[in-house]
Amino acid sequence: MIGAGAVGENVADYATRGGLKVALVEAELVGGECSYWACMPSKALLMSSTALNAARAVGGAREAVTGELDVQAVLNRRDSFTSNWDDSSQAEWVAGAGIDLIRGHATITGVREVTVDGQVLTATHAVAAVTGSTALLPDVPGLRDARPWTSRDATSAKVIPQSLMIVGGGVVAAEMATAYQQLGAKVTLAARSGLLGGQEPFAGEFVRDALTDLGVDLRLGVSPTEVVRTEHDLVETTLSDGTTVITDEILVATGRLPRTDDLGLENVGIEPGDWLHVDDTLLVHGTDWLYGVGDVNHRALLTHQGKYQARAAGEVIAARALGKPLQTEPWGAHVATADHAAVPQVTFTSPEVASVGLTADAAQKQGIDVRVVDYDLAALAGSSLKSDVYKGQARIVVDESRKVLVGATFVGPEVSDLLHAATIAVVGEVPIDRLWHAVPSYPTVSEIWLRLLDAYGRP
Ligand SMILES: Cc1cc2nc3c(=O)[nH]c(=O)nc-3n(C[C@H](O)[C@H](O)[C@H](O)COP(=O)(O)OP(=O)(O)OC[C@H]3O[C@@H](n4cnc5c(N)ncnc54)[C@H](O)[C@@H]3O)c2cc1C
Ligand SMILES: NC(=O)c1ccc[n+]([C@@H]2O[C@H](COP(=O)([O-])OP(=O)(O)OC[C@H]3O[C@@H](n4cnc5c(N)ncnc54)[C@H](O)[C@@H]3O)[C@@H](O)[C@H]2O)c1
């Protein structure tokens, strides 16, 4: 296995449990991006503000909040979640799982052959490239010389800058604008279109309004045309509408690139620098020995979905090696079918955005006979108890020909915990008629399910 991020660790673990001997090669920290520069530190930077907002939204608790956010305590808590960027406990877990850890940069030097610092390792059965992704820097004049931050800097910063320019309108940009503005930076966010493209349009609109309420200077429909690091160590960003913004730092959050440029793919006839194109068993097209799992295959750039792929990949590698029966029919144990139909994602902005499956637009484009049901999440007993200022929205996307859910989106405080019920409904293709028998407790926000069904109509 090349790459010991969250996904590589799981491929290795499942292949080991399947009966194979596995060597896991890691060039940086065992645990990868998610543990040290992505999911965990970014959420740690957000959660203290989220908790404070929740307390301020409830009378009685609000009166008890007399102080402000303790920024240094937030940073210290973030550091504890990254174990101060020390991976010894993760390395211990790898050893305990019976996996051989090799530290160094791996290069594929031939079919089933990987070289690490001159040491040639030959796999009997398979090699898995689980090398993840890295931040993409757009080709803007002056940007590279301006020492821009990427998500790695934003998640590991020891000091909150007084002002921060964020370029991008995706998940990283929205989450980091939410975090940094509340940690005291004056944030400007420039995105070439709306926020959270690819989600239901109302999700981006809620987050746009919330960021504006927090005081973020939103510049939508613009891109940077030039960036200069000035002699006073400030960053001067010129935008396509001709305006200029001066900030202490600039964070570029404009998407990801696969970490395949220095992997030696050219040695086995595969284009380096490209995403790895794989089938549903995660096997790279045109090979019978190379697997691509996690971010590197570009199917869903999310830790949980990569770990789901890892379970299928680790087990299918072992099954193929040991001649065991394969389960490769859709939804079988050895295929990542959910990547096509039911990818759950939570954006941890305030309000949170939680979605699974298809948006109404995507479902229509797939030719599905779509019926959309919307409901105001604030109009529930559960949400009014949770917050005196609750704002939120829910949507389900129904395939009318099969009478099952193909997508759901929730926007509101703490809606992340509503999502798994929707994921089960989509993956299980639970008929709407049967969903009526899944009774949500009163008075919870889960009562949204009852309201959505009511709005859809009795069978
Ligand atoms: C700011 C941010 C926040 C995020 N938040 C979330 C979140 O809340 N929830 C979520 O689900 N997802 C989140 N993601 C996405 C998530 O981080 C990724 O989907 C996940 O880390 C992918 O895991 P991976 O194992 O495929 O890759 P990685 O974690 O990138 O691991 C790949 C590993 O391979 C190693 N490697 C690469 N090349 C070589 C080589 N040639 N030799 C040896 N080792 C090599 C790297 O050093 C690295 O450790 C976030 C991403 C970002 C940027
Ligand atoms: N909570 C989570 O699950 C979470 C959090 C962060 C990141 N992630 C994952 O990490 C991945 C990367 O996130 P991301 O936000 O970097 O990428 P993204 O692809 O989600 O968004 C990139 C954004 O940058 C904009 N953009 C691109 N070039 C631009 C330019 N030149 N000028 C202005 N805007 C430009 C795009 O229009 C888009 O809005 C995502 O796919 C996501 O799955 C997940």
From TrEMBL:
Ranges where the FAD/NAD(P)-binding domain occurs: 2-304
Q: Which SUPFAM superfamilies match?
A: FAD/NAD(P)-binding domain, FAD/NAD-linked reductases, dimerisation (C-terminal) domain
Family affiliation? Belongs to the class-I pyridine nucleotide-disulfide oxidoreductase family.
The beginning of the lineage is: Bacteria, Bacillati, Actinomycetota, Actinomycetes, Micrococcales
Name of this chain's protein: NAD(P)/FAD-dependent oxidoreductase
The Pyridine nucleotide-disulphide oxidoreductase dimerisation domain, residue ranges: 343-449
Q: Which PANTHER family match?
A: DIHYDROLIPOYL DEHYDROGENASE, MITOCHONDRIAL, DISULFIDE OXIDOREDUCTASE
Keywords, comma-separated and alphabetical = FAD, Flavoprotein, NAD
The prosthetic group or cofactor this protein requires is: FAD
InterPro entries linked to this entry: Class-I_Pyr_Nuc-Dis_Oxidored (IPR050151), FAD/NAD-bd_sf (IPR036188), FAD/NAD-binding_dom (IPR023753), FAD/NAD-linked_Rdtase_dimer_sf (IPR016156), Pyr_nuc-diS_OxRdtase (IPR001100), Pyr_nucl-diS_OxRdtase_dimer (IPR004099)
